[in-house]
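This part of the workshop introduces the protein records we will be handling. As an example, a complete record with its sequence and its structure tokens follows.
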Amino acid sequence: MSKKQKIAILGGGVGAMTSAFYLTDQKDWQLKYDITVYQLGWRLGGKGASGRNPDYAERIQEHGLHIWFGFYDNAFHTIKKAYQLLDRPQGDPMRTWQDAFKPHSYIVLQEYIDKQWKTWPIDFPTNKLVPGQIDDELDIWDLFRTAFMWIKRGITDLRQEAKLHRHNRLPTQEHEEDESWLERVANKIRVEARELVDDVKDTAEHLESFLKALPKQLSKRDKDDHHAIHRLLKKLRQWLNQEFCEWLDDNDDIRRLFISLDLGLTVLIGMIEDDVFEHGFDVINDKDYRQWLTDHSANVKYTVNSAPVRGFYDLVFAYEDGDFNKPNVEAGTIIRCMMRIAFNYKGAVMWKMQAGMGDTIFTPFYQALKARGVKFEFFHKVEELTAHNGIVDSIKMTQQVALKEGLSGYNPLVPVPVKGYDIPIDCWPDRPNYEQLDPAQADLLKANNINLESFWTNWPQIYQNHFHKPLPQKTLRQGEDFDLVVFGISIGSLPYLCEDLLAQSPGLKRMSDRVKTVVTQAYQVWSDKSLSELGWCCMPPSGEEPVLSGFVEPFDTWASMDQLLDKETWPASLEPKNVAYFCSAMPMKDFPPPADFAFPERCYEQVKQNAISNLTGAIYNLWPKVAGEGQFDWSILIDPNGQTGQGRFDSQYWRANIDPSEHYVLSVVNSSETRLDTHEAGFDNLYITGDWIKTGLNAGCVEAATMAGMQTSRAISGYPQRIAGEKDF
């Protein structure tokens, strides 16, 4: 029998947990592998970690705003398997994945028009597909056909809207209802290009049949078909500008339809002009998205600078160094994501988690992996990886704290009761379970308010001064303690933990330099007012709460997350009616050395001031009943401490995600070409994983991290063979 391979997994984010999940998702995996996860601090989750605060009704405290998109096939497929494995009993509030996720269709964009903010609501249609079904994945031409059908529907809506508002400004004869918009375009084309009209038969029905009949291998032949479609799309856009541009300043509905159509047409035109169908989306990653739209003749005033375009930059925090004057995202990467979000979703465009991300995602991961036999070593801070002759040969770590005498392992979860259920849910606390730690060390941690997750912690010095010895160090040796290493800590940590590896691997160094990250900031407020009592008036017929983007900085994104309140334990006298999540990028370019222990507190204070400015500033555009210019009704905030005025904000929650492993991974221009596969780091026994490696999606999100973890497992074990979305075709 061959020797088991010892696998050391560093980090506990989505990529690392997915790697472990698929490595152990094979029959008799224990005969092949011995897997240990080494985790900083007391909880799993990485950028997706959340914690429960027992001082404030076990409220959920997130790193930011986490909502899954309906196209996350790999992520849903994986988490559904985890819930099935747990087989939780009847009466468990988080028994199945359907209990953990609920569909969400209502998205809101904010437009700044004539020096005022206007709300642009978008209620996406639902469908009968189930997320996580990866066998029916669309190819790029399916996406094209779907986009075309949306464009046709949009033009029909635009004509109807124009008919309502035209006041005899458009010639009636040209717009008779028995003549389709495509027939009019075809008639214009007939005059200039008879052969093109012959190809498309000058009717909508024939063009649709033409598109449906396009072979998937069209990208490698039949360039005449490309030219035919390209010409039609350009004529449509020309007609759109000629017919409607004069109304765009006067009518919100027409302007928004115009922007949507101009954006869709430009994307399809540009994809054809730049041979995306032949070479894939990455061929246009040498340009920023806005520049690419401009180069392909999108309307600069209305479309390039529109709320939908800005909303996508906000979605992926696409601002270099958090500078909102430096938007930067690869055109190909963002268009790939846009098309999958809009045209490849299952059930609903979004799915909201019904508890914290830690509770919903990382508790099932931890429990399933623990039951399978994966070992977890919490409170292990990775300090350095070294390599020799193409092999990672050592991993240096600090053991941050000792467990209480007699304990063989750390139990990281705490039970939190749920209203109306007899069974509590297992959650990650916002602090260590001190009762499981060495009492003297636990008291010292609490007395000094030590954050064991911080890169700038002074815990080693405090420990040294108190116990007159350094924190225990351990070095894992290749061939003894590990054979393979899965590096699942985010790319922002590479310069600090892998200096030796970067010096030996040009490819790893190039990726580390070129794949940028950005600091993010977030805050949450609990109030005694419902959405309508706050003044929010744009509710869809479904009654869904808004997920809003494109708003004013420093917090451009807001979501009402009331679905979480029943998972918190507020007493009746303090029960909130609404919880609001805000997030955005945070301007920050330079970082002090680890010895600057006051740096986190300075950042923490900055986010607090940003949040207060947000509430006393432009928030009145969203919540007019509790705010005005320069004013905010602080009394609406839930405060168990009974403070008054602005002091009530002190009991809310805010954070700056400044630690290197917490930075959000960007897709800046020409960075995807430097991303490495999981096994390409330059060392035979090292596998890198996370949303920062080359996945085929190449964007910062749960789906990319899941794909990375699956790729890591496949590179080690050959399983899983199928990963959806790795290729554009």
In short: The two ends are 42 Å apart (CA to CA). Residues 100-114+517-661 form one domain. The first strand starts at residue 5 and ends at 10.
